[in-house]
Specification:
Distance between the termini: 70 Å
Oligomer: single chain
Radius of gyration: 19 Å
Shape: globular
Mean pLDDT: 89
Strand content: 25-35%
Helix content: 25-40%
CATH class of the largest domain: Alpha Beta
Length: about 220
C-alpha cells in the first residue's frame, strides 16, 4: 500500500510518496514562508514521478507543534486531497518526524535515545523523548531549564531539531542534528506508525488574540474610581 506524507509545519516543505517504507519520490525544500504557493506543485511533481496516486491507501500530514500558519496550510491541503481521493488522512507530530530523521545506524547516534527539540522562542522548547523509535514521553512545551533537565535524565542521547543546540551541554557526547525541518525519511518513518486522524496539535496558545469588541461596537466605558 502506498502512502503520501506532507509537512509544512516548520522551516521546510516536504512531500513524499512511499510504499512499504521505500520512498518512491520526494521533494524537500527549506523555506520560512510560501508553503501554500509551492505545496500543490510539489505534490504534482511527486505524483508524476511515482506514477500517480494508483494504490494510494492514505495521506499523512504533520499536525504540529510548529508554525500556526504553516501547519494549517498542510492540514487544509491534506484534508482536501483526502476528500477528493476518498482516502483517510492521518496526523503525525513534527517531533516524531524529527526523531525519525536521525541518521541511520552506524553513525554516532546508533542505539542512543533521541530527544527531538524545537526552539519555540521566548525561552521555551517543544520537546519529546524517544527510545527505539517510539515515544517515551508526551510532547511538551517546556522552559529551557526544564528541557535541559529532561536532556540530563537521558544521558548520552541524539539531539535533533532546531532546539538541539540549546540542549547540547546537558547531554555529554551527544549526537546533534540541528534540523530546521524533518527529512523525508523521518516523515515516512513516522507516517508508517500513524494511527490517529489529523487534528492540529497546539502546545502553546497563539500570539494573536480575538478582538474584545465587534466592528462598530463602542468601546466599553470605565466607571469612575
Amino acid at each position: 500500500m502506498r502512502g503520501l506524507v506532507i509537512d509544512t509545519a516548520l522551516g521546510g516543505l516536504s512531500v513524499a510518496l512511499f510504499e512499504h517504507g521505500t520512498i518512491l519520490a520526494a521533494r524537500h525544500e527549506l523555506m520560512a514562508r510560501g508553503h501554500q504557493e509551492r505545496l500543490g506543485e510539489l505534490v504534482r511533481d511527486v505524483a508524476a514521478e511515482a506514477g500517480g496516486f494508483d494504490g494510494l491507501g492514505r495521506i499523512t500530514v504533520t499536525v504540529g507543534p510548529g508554525s500556526f500558519t504553516g501547519l494549517r496550510v498542510g492540514l487544509a491541503f491534506a484534508l482536501g486531497l483526502g476528500a477528493a481521493l476518498d482516502r483517510p488522512v492521518l496526523g503525525i507530530t513534527t517531533l516524531a518526524a524529527l526523531a525519525g530523521s536521525v541518521d541511520s545506524p552506524g553513525d554516532a547516534s546508533a542505539g542512543l535515545p533521541v530527544l527531538a527539540a524545537i526552539d519555540a522562542r521566548r525561552g521555551e522548547v517543544y520537546a519529546q523523548a524517544f527510545a527505539g523509535g517510539r515515544p517515551s514521553g508526551a510532547p511538551e512545551a517546556l522552559t529551557l531549564e526544564a528541557a535541559l533537565d529532561l536532556a540530563r535524565t537521558l544521558g548520552p542521547a541524539a539531539l535533533v531539531g532546531s532546539g538541539a543546540p540549546l540542549l547540547a551541554g546537558a547531554c555529554p557526547a551527544a549526537a546533534i542534528q540541528a534540523l530546521a525541518a524533518p527529512a523525508p525519511a523521518g516523515l515516512v518513518a513516522a507516517a508508517r506508525r500513524a494511527d490517529q486522524p489529523a487534528r492540529p496539535l497546539y502546545l502553546r496558545a497563539p500570539d494573536a488574540t480575538p478582538p474584545s469588541r465587534l466592528p462598530g461596537q463602542p468601546r466599553p466605558t470605565r466607571e469612575p474610581s
